[in-house]
Amino acid sequence: MTAKIIDGRLIAETLRAEIAREATDFRNQTGIVPHLTAVLVGDDPASAVYVKNKHLACEKAGFKSTLVRLPAETTQQELLHVVERLNADPTVHGILVQLPLPKGLAAQPILDAVSPLKDVDCFHPENVGLLSQGRPRFLPCTPSGVQQILIHEQVTVPGAHVVIVGRSDIVGRPLALMLLQKGQAADATVTVCHSRTKDLAAVARTADILVAAIGQPEFITADMVKPGAVVIDVGINRVGERLVGDVAFAAVSEVASAITPVPRGVGPMTITMLLANTLKAAKLAS
Ligand code: NAP
Predict the structure, then answer these.
(1) Would the pLDDT of 231 be above 90?
(2) Would you kindly state where each structural domain of the chain is located, as residue ranges?
(3) Cα torsion for 257, 267, 116, 43, to the nearest 10°?
(4) What ranges in the chain are assigned the alpha helix state H?
(5) Domain 141-267's class?
(6) Nearest to 53 by CA among 263, 282, 283, 285
(7) 54 is catalytic
(8) How many angstroms from the chain centroid is the CA of residue 286?
(9) Which residue is closest in CA terms to ligand 1's atom 40?
């Protein structure tokens, strides 16, 4: 079998156009322009690129986007004050603190300080709690992007066995919560694997839908994939000049029925869902 290659960029473009239309309608009705503020601390070049891409996506969707840039020497207290100022600013609808923070700054207290109503990354415990109870305010961006791919590709998720490799707070764990819920592109039987999972290959082979979110280049090999499975590769790993996923793309493409590439798979969906959350935050504030 040669897998269908899922074009995440195309799905993202379609969704971004819908979000832009919705934002225009909202602006026409209320006069409010959705506004995302990113906080970037230090000089990490990869973080600067991510923030720039988010800024460009906002502008293209007709959103306002601002950046608070702080030096690497910023103290925990100073960063906390910036977040509190943004929380209190009624013209800011979404706050994004770009991770990782420089050494010496603890991310958790900062993320906890972001107003849950402006927490467009869905990291705040209140929003994670609502998600786990099946009544989400915001959906976490990367897991939501994965779910949108499954919807757009008309993959049957209800009743399917989804195996997620990786249990991070950003990807694996919230994705498991989402796919366990009742509803469209959900109602799955979910297994989550991690570094202590016994015979991970055997577990992975039972998946109808296999999601890799590990951060290990080409970790998922063809022998770990059931013939006909749908494979979603969340991983982004730099190997020399190349970007590769967590899945050995060429070999797994010969076994799977559909597969997301890296780049142009899940990556473009993450920013798209950030736009969706920012629009929702603006609506919640109006
Ligand atoms: P993370 O926080 O480092 O978590 C990695 C997870 O994978 C952990 O649960 C870890 O298990 C598990 N793991 C690592 N090595 C393993 C192994 N050999 N066998 C089994 N499990 C293993 O990573 P993350 O933030 O979720 O990111 C994962 C990947 O997705 C990275 O490549 C990242 O760049 C990418 N990513 C992409 C997007 C996007 O927009 N496409 C967004 C976020 C992340 P333990 O918990 O036991 O340590």
Answers:
(1) yes
(2) 31-115, 141-267
(3) 150
(4) 8-30, 45-60, 76-88, 107-113, 125-132, 141-152, 172-180, 200-204, 249-253, 267-285
(5) alpha beta
(6) 263
(7) yes
(8) 25
(9) 267
Q: What are phi and psi of 248, to 5 degrees?
A: -75, 90
Q: Which ligand 1 atom is at minimum distance from the Cα of 271?
A: 40
- Percent of the chain exceeding pLDDT 70 equals 100
CA distances from 51 to 61, 96, 193, 258, 267 (A): 15, 9, 30, 30, 14
98 is catalytic: yes
pLDDT in tens, 140-194: 999 999 999 999 999 999 999 999 999 999 999 999 999 999 998 999 999 999 9
pLDDT at 129 (0 to 100): 97
Active-site annotation holder among 4, 29, 108, 121: 121
The alpha carbon of 18 and the centre of ligand 1 are apart by a number of angstroms equal to 30
- Residue 201 pLDDT > 90: yes
One-letter amino acid for residue 35 of the chain: H
pLDDT of residue 78: 98
- Residues having CB closer than 6 A to ligand 1 are 142, 165-168, 170-172, 193-196, 200, 213-216, 234-237, 266-267, 270
Name 75's Cβ contacts closer than 8 Å, sequence gap at least 6.
Answer: none
The tokens describing 247, both together, are: 């899945």
212: pLDDT strictly greater than 80: yes
Q: Which CATH architecture has domain 31-115?
A: 3-Layer(aba) Sandwich (3.40)
Q: What is the reported pTM?
A: 0.97
Beta bridge partners of 220: 247
The CB density around residue 120, as the number of other CB atoms within 10 Å, is 27
Query: Does the annotation mark 119 as catalytic?
Result: no
For residue range 10-53, list pLDDT tens digits in order: 999 999 999 999 999 999 999 999 999 999 999 999 999 999 99
